[in-house]
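Internal tracking record. Fields below are filled automatically when a chain is submitted to the structure queue. Please do not edit lines marked as system-generated. If the sequence contains nonstandard residues, flag them in the REMARKS field before resubmitting.
Queue: standard
Priority: normal
Entity type: single polypeptide chain
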Amino acid sequence: MKVRDLMVKNVVTLQTDTSAHEATKLLNKNKIGCLVVVRNDDIEGILTKRDLLERVLEKCKDPRETKISEIMTRKVIVGKPDMEVFEATKIMVENKIKKLPIVDKRHVVGIVTVTDIARVTNIDKKTIELVDALSNMHMLKH
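SYSTEM-GENERATED OUTPUT FOLLOWS
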């Protein structure tokens, strides 16, 4: 199965100058765990709930004053729509990430999460093992 057959195509994005407060409202409204940060449709970063917890709440920053550009993860690991799901899962495990934006020429065309992969784990034994490892990666030693 190809990633394009699995990915969520309606990716919620935001601009780098958005406040952490507005980003949090967007996450809650859409009941999602991350937002892809774009500039002129090109991927600039990713913002997860963990980024908000560690870089805003824990540091007692004002979410209305803190811009996404200050707290987003800039080094974004991405996948391609034509890659196999197994390959995407392997990338996620190796990089200890749970969300993989899917890009075509730096433009975001979708996103795949651990949850998406879990829905199709009957593909093969290797993919099941990788999803299991990814789901339990917080228990892996660094």
